[in-house]
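Per your request, structure below.
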């Protein structure tokens, strides 16, 4: 039995709330159970120096956890003077995931930065961030299309979403919360597109190595979960912005 009482293939309740930031071109508050992340997409009419005059745009991400997003207050990384390795790794993952579904040439020489700020953490913050970031990016691109800056269907090639899976108490389970994640025998994160393409798989054995059969079992759970997340993304963006 999972601590939450969920079945092995049952995700936590997932919700998306769009247009939660007055100033951002795109924004989304994503909730995977008790993990809540605010994603905001900001447009700049410039690209990094190494991309100037190259005819391509750029999509990047920043990630952070608020001081009381966890049980004990964490010190802000800004006050420490540098970002931690985990933070850098996660924000690079988010950026890679978004760029996998964007035509950077069609975007033009512009940069979109998606900021993912964890308000409340209960496991799966990186997967919730990627899934919510896609909606914030979509709304930013929609904002641009409404101003005749781009054609949305030329720039955004597909959906992208992510989910965690793992082996807990000897069973393959999907969407680990903190209690499961902290005690899992194997922990994995899957990032996939709406058409089923694999963007990234991160898998780690916390104790004994996991088998190929277990990996395939986790993959099957992830594919089903991501298909559900993409369906929720489509339903969300099909409706009017709040």
């Amino acid at each position: 039995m999972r601590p939450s009482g969920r079945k092995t293939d049952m995700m936590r309740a997932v919700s998306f709330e769009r247009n939660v930031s007055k100033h951002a071109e795109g924004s989304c508050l994503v909730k995977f159970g008790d993990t809540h992340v605010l994603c905001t997409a900001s447009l700049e009419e410039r690209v990094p120096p190494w991309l100037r005059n190259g005819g391509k745009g750029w999509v990047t991400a920043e990630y952070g956890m608020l001081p009381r997003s966890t049980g004990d207050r964490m010190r802000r990384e800004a006050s420490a003077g540098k970002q931690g390795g985990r933070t850098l790794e996660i924000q690079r993952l988010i950026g890679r995931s978004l760029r996998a579904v964007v035509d950077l040439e069609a975007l033009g020489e512009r940069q979109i930065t998606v900021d993912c700020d964890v308000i409340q953490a209960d496991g799966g913050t990186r997967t919730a961030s990627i899934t919510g970031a896609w909606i914030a990016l979509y709304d930013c691109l929609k904002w641009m299309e409404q101003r005749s800056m781009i054609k949305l269907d030329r720039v955004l090639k597909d959906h992208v979403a992510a989910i965690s899976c793992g082996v807990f108490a000897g069973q393959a389970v999907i969407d680990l919360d903190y209690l499961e994640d902290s005690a899992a025998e194997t922990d994995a994160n899957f990032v996939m597109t709406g058409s089923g393409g694999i963007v990234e798989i991160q898998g780690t054995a916390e104790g004994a190595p996991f088998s190929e059969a277990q990996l395939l079992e986790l993959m099957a759970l992830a594919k089903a979960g991501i298909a559900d997340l993409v369906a929720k993304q489509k339903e969300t963006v099909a409706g009017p912005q709040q």
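The first strand starts at residue 14 and ends at 18.

Regards,
D.
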